[in-house]
Amino acid sequence: MSKFNKGGKKELPAISTASLPDIVFMLLFFFMVATVMRQNTLLIENKLPYADQVEKLENRNLTMYIYAGKPAAGYKKFGNEARVQLNDKLISDVREVQAFVQQTRANTPQTEVGRLLTALKVDVNTNMGLIGDVKNELREVNQLKINYATLNGDATKNIK
Amino acid sequence: MAKRSAPEVNAGSMADIAFLLLIFFLVTTTIESDTGMNRKLPPKLPENIDPPNIKEKNLFAIIVNKNNELLVEEQPMELKDLREATIAFLDNGGDSSCKYCKGKRNPESSDNPDKAVISLQNSRQTNYASYIAITNEVLAGYKVLRNREAKRIYGVSYADLVQQYKDAAEDSPEKEAWKKKRDAIKSMFPEKFSEAEAKE
Predict the structure, then answer these.
(1) In this structure, is residue A4 part of a structural domain?
(2) pLDDT (tens digit, 9 = 90+) per residue, B116-131?
């Protein structure tokens, strides 16, 4: 009887991959939209501290970033002391912060200069002396709005 | 000439191209929203200005040394107690001029939230993480009190007030109203948190 023919060699039908590009494109678009290109290559360790009184940075274009921390593995030629990084280089003199601020201001439309914000991205293992110096330089050029970049979390985790 | 239909373009390699792009974006992506604590630095003052006269009891002195140990009002303190201590100090209302304060009305502590100043002094060797933690606790103290008053008067949290103000359409009467409410709460507990020059 061949009504229930099981004997025949039936091959599994190939799974159609025609919709694979669609799926991949969907993922692609998601990542394209969500992505933020790294602006600077970090030459230093940059593990941010935790805090819970945080606000979101609103306008990336009006934010200048100042990094600080100990030189990362691979950049030990710069020493073991915490350093400040502006754009792509470590600075040797903290007074260069002033020039950096002036330059950022010059590259910002006149009407928006007042809204410029300085984000300090500082590694947890940095001494306050260096940060105090940076803050003094910022006061010197009247760049008073600052933001301490932190991760969102319980601040007591900072102290081991 | 025979009519030829246009040959179909083979789309089989489309997936490969898309994968390539996908992998590129996967690698370069950093899904992080920038968050942080907003602070304002004090403007540079001329040299010959006298420091304002602040009564000892209206000053809440926090000192943190190079070993990240806290000294609050000359007493050692753990970080976890700092928030409570800040709230107690700000909310004290020692001279009874503050109607909404719910503190102990200790005459040895601050007179009025408007006069209460918190000062933080750190050493140059203080760790940045502890500094952030301390700043965070003090700001949290202000926020708790502002929330309490915002809830009591307007029935919403302070963060909601700020958010509503931000979300309201530009130049609309709502924006004005939210701004008024926000400023009212803000002025009940004005942020007077100063940082002294670091000492060696």
Answers:
(1) no
(2) 899 999 998 999 999 9
